[in-house]
Design a protein that fits this description.
It is a single chain. With 277 residues, the protein is mainly alpha-helical. It has one domain. The protein has twelve helices and no strands. Helix 4 packs parallel to helix 8, helix 5 (90-102) packs antiparallel against helix 9 and helix 8 runs parallel beside helix 12.
């Protein structure tokens, strides 16, 4: 005997089969997270490197660095390092996307009835999760060496959200580069470029101690905006006593990642659709 399904049930079945970028992205993020768990050394060495930078600048050079407006250098340094950590590891995202494309894994995903944004979104979610873990470890390490926030839970939560928001925007840059440039030379180039971008900021020193033109460049760095906003929200010394960034750091830290995402998310989606082995 043949059973006839009602139109409502059929429509519901069709809705279940429709591509869902978020659901598919979460599934792919689970796959990427398993790879990170099986090969955790990249995250471990990245954390060790960041901790080394904190100890070196905080205890080796920190005694010689004076902040405009005064304040403890460790309290100034730690939020900056949290922001810098959101920039470091960008080449890992790039490499992972490039390797999946080279090995044909991306082509297998392309053959499935899923949205074109799902693969990139899955990588972004997985990397954002590992970044959140790294940030938590660094914050715990900061507490152990004397750093502490002086504001309430709401401000601290906003600071953490802004830090991860910066990471989210930068991930789309890494995904776009990974889908566009797949040679080892491209990865090396990104690793080299990350350093001047990270250091030409207010992570380690205040922009007010730099030559005028260099200070302006440092203030307009997205990493500087997030670092200054995090310091302000954590209640730490900002090293900014005047200027636009001193008064609008939270706004700048909110807008910069939005701009980066708005530029590189569509570019990443286009690069994925045009991808060929």
């Amino acid at each position: 005997m043949t059973t006839t399904r009602s139109p409502i049930a059929a429509a519901a079945d069709l809705r279940d089969r429709r591509p869902n970028a978020l659901r598919e992205g979460l599934l792919i993020a689970g796959r990427d997270a398993l790879h990170q768990i099986r090969e955790p050394w990249g995250i471990v060495f990245g954390l060790a490197f960041n901790i080394m930078l904190i100890l070196m600048f905080g205890f080796l050079f920190g005694g010689a660095i004076e902040l405009p407006g005064g304040g403890d250098y460790i309290a100034y340094l730690l939020p900056g390092m949290f922001a810098l950590t959101m920039l470091f590891g960008l080449e890992s995202t790039m490499t992972a996307m490039a390797e999946d494309a080279k090995r044909g894994i991306t082509d297998r995903f392309r053959s499935l009835p899923i949205t074109s944004a799902s693969v990139a979104l899955g990588r972004a979610i997985a990397d954002l999760g590992s970044s959140a873990l790294s940030l938590a470890v660094l914050m715990l390490g900061g507490l152990l060496i004397g750093w502490h926030p002086t504001t309430g839970p709401a401000e601290i939560t906003v600071a953490v959200v802004l830090l991860l928001w910066l990471r989210f925007g930068l991930l789309w840059l890494g995904i776009f580069l990974g889908l566009t440039f797949r040679g080892t030379g491209a990865t090396t180039a990104v690793q080299v470029l990350v350093w001047p971008i990270g250091f030409l900021s207010t992570v380690f020193v205040s922009a007010e101690t730099m030559p005028g033109w260099l200070g302006v460049i440092a203030e307009w760095n997205p990493v500087s905006a997030t670092a200054t906003a995090a310091r302000e929200l954590f209640g730490n010394p900002t090293g900014a006593t005047s200027g636009w960034l001193a008064e609008n750091a939270v706004v700048a830290a909110s807008v910069w990642p939005l701009v980066i995402t708005g530029v590189f998310l569509p570019l990443a989606a286009t690069a994925y659709r045009r991808l060929r082995r």
